[in-house]
Design brief:
about 110 residues, mainly alpha, two-stranded antiparallel ribbon, 2 strands, about 65% helix
């Protein structure tokens, strides 16, 4: 919860769960990635992936790249901006994880005898 609250407060663009899942699949699994393959990986339709890619592309987190060998194929490629976003999001998770034991210790109630 702490990581998500800090993320919302950060002013970074809000991503839907689908957009975040798509971003993570592209960055954490080996490519090349296509719309069809991403739709299969997420068990959603190709239009769902296309809409998410439009948003992530507008933010600069992913980009479409034409296959040089077959111009009909379009790959989804990582960008430095997307890598920076995920690195920052990772810091939210790390910071929240480090703060969790401290919060838990201060919230403990003394045992009643």
């Amino acid at each position: 919860m702490g990581a998500l609250v800090d993320y919302v407060r950060s002013g970074e663009p809000d991503l839907t769960n689908r957009q975040m899942a798509l971003l993570l699949v592209v960055y954490l699994s080996p490519g090349p990635h296509t719309v069809r393959g991403l739709a299969r990986a997420l068990n959603v339709s190709k239009p769902v992936v296309t809409r998410a890619l439009n948003r992530l592309g507008a933010l600069g987190y992913l980009r479409r790249q034409r296959d040089d060998a077959d111009k009909r194929n379009i790959f989804v490629a990582r960008t430095p901006e997307g890598a920076d976003f995920l690195e920052e999001f990772g810091h939210f998770i790390d910071d929240a994880g480090a703060a969790a034991p401290k919060r838990a210790a201060t919230q403990r109630q003394p045992a009643l005898a």
